[in-house]
Automatic annotation (TrEMBL):
Keywords linked to the UniProt accession: Hydrolase, Nucleus
Upper classification of the organism: Eukaryota, Viridiplantae, Streptophyta, Embryophyta, Tracheophyta
The organism of origin for this protein: Camelina sativa
FCP1 homology domain residues: 42-213
Location within or outside the cell: Nucleus
Ranges where the BRCT domain occurs: 258-350
InterPro entries in the cross-refs: BRCT_dom, BRCT_dom_sf, Fcp1, FCP1_dom, FCP1_euk, HAD-like_sf, HAD_sf
Name of the featured protein: RNA polymerase II C-terminal domain phosphatase-like
First-tier enzyme category under EC: hydrolase
EC number annotated for this UniProt entry: 3.1.3.16
Length: 362
């Protein structure tokens, strides 16, 4: 409303109602705030980290969706009065149970020393705030930086336009790449955390959930521990030269640099993986291998370390066996890309692929 004449004005700008319900900022003001914040980041030696909730930091299920094999969980929940030491919580008032991912407390503590952190979830605001209480009971990690689907500017998508940080200083951790169509270079995709059976059903997975197996991810070797190493590397590269002005630096380039170390030193030849008439170097798998630091080639020679094939009968695969080179299926590259570290070749042999396909057919 105009304070001079009282006329109601059209609302413009981007809403930041997660900070204050009436708060709107125009693009010039957002740019000014982001620019001025770079000085703060430089002094604090911090970047921004935007964290997804579901399947990234935790897993939730509706109570009625618990299978009989999961009923034992009801006697293993922790008190909501003091959540600091717990990992499994039953919230009757939300008809929900939530399991925090192993290593999440250490992850948040260490990450908070390098990043100003946001939560950004496709869940609604009450859910986002309740999950924040479980993860950050003292409010020391996130403050009011809790963004829900009610705060986004595009339905069914996430965007950095509601984050008050320069895109060149923001990293994102999420299990869903498609949620961030305009920010894939900022994104670290994490392996999904499927603790509850309903989570496996949601993604049409046939295997048993961790709760049904009465198991869980490893704390020291799980997905969050791996990602923390990636974040530390990117942060160290960004602040490598202490006195350098960071306004011209871009953490997305640092992330690409970290990724290029994963398969560095390996030379890969593909055998009947791509369509016959396609240009191999245009195929997403070829590009992925190069992004991971591997050298790709179309012909074998002594410098080749890996042949990627889908069957043992190809000439290149037989050559690799004779020359004692690794023969793996394409999953070896996909897994390295997804898990941010080179995977053991024996887990991606063509024999393993046959067994896997046989199980799926059964």
């Amino acid at each position: 409303m105009c304070f001079v004449c009282g006329q109601k004005l059209e609302e413009t700008g981007v809403s930041f109602r997660y900070i204050h319900k009436e708060m709107r900022l125009n693009q010039d003001e957002i740019s000014r705030l982001r620019d001025s914040d770079m000085g703060f980041l430089q002094r604090q030696r911090k970047l921004y980290l935007v964290l997804d909730l579901d399947h990234t930091l935790l897993n939730s299920t509706i109570l009625r969706d618990l299978k009989p094999e999961e009923e034992y969980l009801n006697s293993h929940t922790h008190s909501l009065q003091d959540v600091s030491g717990g990992s499994l919580f039953k919230m009757e008032f939300m008809h929900m149970m939530t399991k925090l991912r192993p290593f999440v407390h250490s992850f948040l503590k260490e990450a908070s020393e390098m990043f100003v952190m946001y939560i950004y979830t496709m869940g609604d605001r009450p859910y986002a705030r309740q999950m924040a209480k479980l993860l950050d009971p003292k409010g020391e990690y996130f403050g009011d930086r809790i963004i829900s689907r009610d705060d986004g500017t595009v339905r069914h998508q996430k965007s950095l336009d509601v984050v008050l940080g320069q895109e060149s200083a923001v990293l994102i951790l999420d299990d869903t790449e498609n949620a961030w169509p305009n920010h894939k270079d900022n994104l670290i995709v994490i392996e999904r955390y499927h603790f509850f059976a309903s989570s496996c059903r949601q993604f049409d997975h046939k295997y048993k959930s961790l709760s049904e197996l009465k198991s869980d991810e490893s704390e020291p070797d799980g997905a969050l521990a791996t990602v923390l190493k990636v974040l530390k590397q990117a942060h160290a590269l960004f602040f490598e030269n202490v006195d350098e002005d960071i306004s011209n630096k871009d953490v997305r380039l640092m992330l690409k640099q970290v990724r290029k170390e994963i398969l560095k030193g390996f030379k890969v030849v593909f055998s009947r993986v791509f369509p016959t008439k396609a240009k191999p170097e245009d195929h997403p798998l070829w590009k992925m291998a190069e992004d991971l630091g591997a050298t790709c080639a179309t012909e074998v020679d002594a410098s080749v370390t890996h042949v990627v094939a889908m069957e043992m009968g190809t000439e290149k695969a037989r050559w690799a066996v004779r020359e004692k080179k690794f023969v793996v299926h394409r999953g070896w590259i996909d897994a390295a890309n997804y898990l941010w570290k080179k995977q053991p070749e024996e887990n991606f042999s063509l024999e393993q692929l046959k067994k896997q396909q046989g199980t799926e057919e059964e």
